[in-house]
Amino acid sequence: MSDEATVLEWSQPGDRYTDFCLWDYAPAAPTTGRLRSVNLLYDSFAAAGVAAPMRALCAAVRAAVGPFNTVWGVKVQDGRLFWELYFYDYRRQARELSIARVLAALRPFAPCDLRLPDSRPYFMFSIDLDPALARGGRAIEGLNVYLGNVGSSVSSGISYLLTAQGLSLENLYFFFDARRECEDILAKVTHSAHIEPAAFDPATVLWPDLRDCTTLVVANKRHHDGVYFTRVGVDQLIRFMGRLGYPPGMIAFVTTHRVRLDHLRFDVAFDYRMDADGLRILKGSYYGCF
Hints:
Elements: H1 4-7, H2 38-47, H3 51-65, E1 70-77, E2 80-88, H4 99-106, E3 124-129, H5 131-134, E4 143-148, E5 156-163, E6 166-177, H6 182-190, E7 215-221, E8 225-232, H7 234-244, H8 248-256, H9 258-261, E9 266-275, E10 278-289
Antiparallel strand pairs: 1-2, 1-10, 2-3, 3-4, 4-5, 5-6, 6-7, 7-8, 8-9, 9-10
Helix pairs in contact: 2-3, 2-8, 3-4, 7-8
């Protein structure tokens, strides 16, 4: 990597600070001389050996949709790094940020022939990226499309996978106030087809270190469940990365710059299920915005 000063993006007056729902929050500390969260994304590209093509891809996306309109996730599973980019437009059918607009920006990097009519009331979609795509080894083969779950008494959403074969139901997400709805959260994580209630300790997924988050999301997925903790601090992120097995160099990057990142709030998540050997954590994710 070249001189670090030429690689890092520094916070600027007028920067927007959002969680992974693209909801605004006030910075937790002064922002002068601090770093943008996107630096963690760039560092993960370097760790995977695809810094140049992935930074170029992100620059094209930012140019197409504007700054601070793209949520990113850095994911790890079985030691393998990959990413997801999320795009929101809560105006739904009156949207300006469409699937077609983003795919047009990505076409020079990864073609995609998938289409979904703008009349469908999705408020978000996301795209999975990996080193093979970054190196030109594959096209975009699927999109994740998210709709609100109308009629639910709990804030919730539904995601579908869009492929050449059409749409298939993927995940159900339920959003809880982490401080006020503790009993509902407990009931939700224990009422699952993927755990054995008699052997399940809720603390194995509702980590005490993360319970001071703002919103706690419980997801029911096709083959497992997931939990998401919003707006946690940089020290919590560092501990989370260590526990989920992120590469040591990436943890060292965040640790080295922790004072320059302490104004930010991050979102973290992991998927899990139980088998004969007990609870297994399958995948970790953390999120920011550029």
